[in-house]
Amino acid sequence: MRLPLLPLFVLPVILSCSDPYLDGVLTRAEALMEERPDSSLAMLERLDNAGIDSPGRKAHYALDYAMALDKNWVDTANVDVIRPALNYYRFSFSRKQRFLSRYYYARILENGQSLEDAIKSFSEADRSFGKGIDSVYLIRIAAAKSRIYAKQFIDDKAETALQEAVRYARSLKDAENEQRMMLSLADFYGATGRSARMDSILMMMGTPLPGLGLWKARSVAARVFLDPADSIRFRDEWSLFSQTAERQPEMLDTKSVVNYLIFKKRHGEALSLLSRERPESLPLSEEIAHWGQMRDAYMGLGDYEGALHAQDRYSSLVEELSLRQFRSDLRSTEDRYASRLKQYRNRMLNFLLAVLFLLMAALLCRAMKKKRRMQDMLSDLRGEYEMLVRLRETELARNEYFARKLESRLQALKPYFTDEFPDELYDSTELRRMTEDSKEMLRNVGFLFGIYHPEFILALEGKGLSELEVGYCCLYALGFTGKEIPDKLQRSSFYNTSSAIRKKVGLGPHDTNLSIWIRNLYSECEKE
Known about the structure:
Number of helices: 25
Helix content: over 70%
């Protein structure tokens, strides 16, 4: 019995591509990512990344590793960590993997202060969001955009992004993230000097959830430092902050602890704590706050020379901040102008395209109507040719003058009767002229028919018929039927003429057929 050979070749390939151990580690690391991210990171770091050959597994490992670093608050700025996943999942059918690779690539760019590229990548991740992806990422993206805009001093966009994050959390009924985003919004209002809005957010928030009480207390403390009377209005939160600053200062950021010490007039302790910081490594807004606190601490100690030095540094940084804000506002204005200009150009282009389309459609319709009209005229001329051939067999052809006219007309029509004729004849002006000449032939038919049958012509003229209408009636008398005449001559002209004749001879809509009436009249005239 013959064994199939294909499975024998395919099976070793499949086995060589599989790596049960690596797949198992990546699966377990993903399962622990949310609940125990430290364990997930430890498992991934024990793997030999250089020994992974499969592009798919390299991408899988890179994405999991970037996620584990981010969830363990390891702010790496090395984009090579996520690049294999970004390149591999860019064209993947998995929307979730494509989204996650773009999101964590943006997080790494944010860590490296590549703020413009980070915003662009967050926006790309936002656009690729879809079914099967945790909706919490929408909140995270909005919060990340707010952080970046705040660093760029674009306050209006930072505020809008935070408000969007609050709305996302509220729509998802995620109370914890809603309060987190509300506290971030309150801190933003406090940092930008909008105390009334900060108060409204804190009052609206109510009792914080477990784990968020200290955050709210820190936000309230920022209000108390500006207005001590708020310590009574927010008694519980201020009490929590004070106890934490006294007993567990490591639970708070340095800026909050220093503000508390200055508020309590413990300027020496505040100056000692500030001296441990490296202000040049801080972001500009935090460096400004650092030198402002140094000034206040020196003033409290009576060291006016140190306070003057701190004030000079503070003033120069504020000027730099103002310049950055001006540049940011200018860039924002330029972006809005460029966006509106682009929209205007797009609208104008669409308008011009629509006008061009309508013009082309009108020209096409006109060309089609002209072609149909020419085809109708050509069909009429071919029908006339067939009719004139039959007229050569009638008694009218015995008239030498009519015979010459008839032959001349036949020779003129002959090119149109053939299947192929010169292109110069396929012209609307020429066709119209030839069609007009057919009316002259009808008048000649009526005139010659009157030579042989004068009583019939007199009877028709007595009804008020024109020369052209008499010619039509003569065709009926010569044996042409009501079906043949419109086939041989212009249909629209025939129907109009036929209606006019019926009206003049007194035939109503329900009276006898016009051809029968004419033949009866012709027979009566011949008897006389």
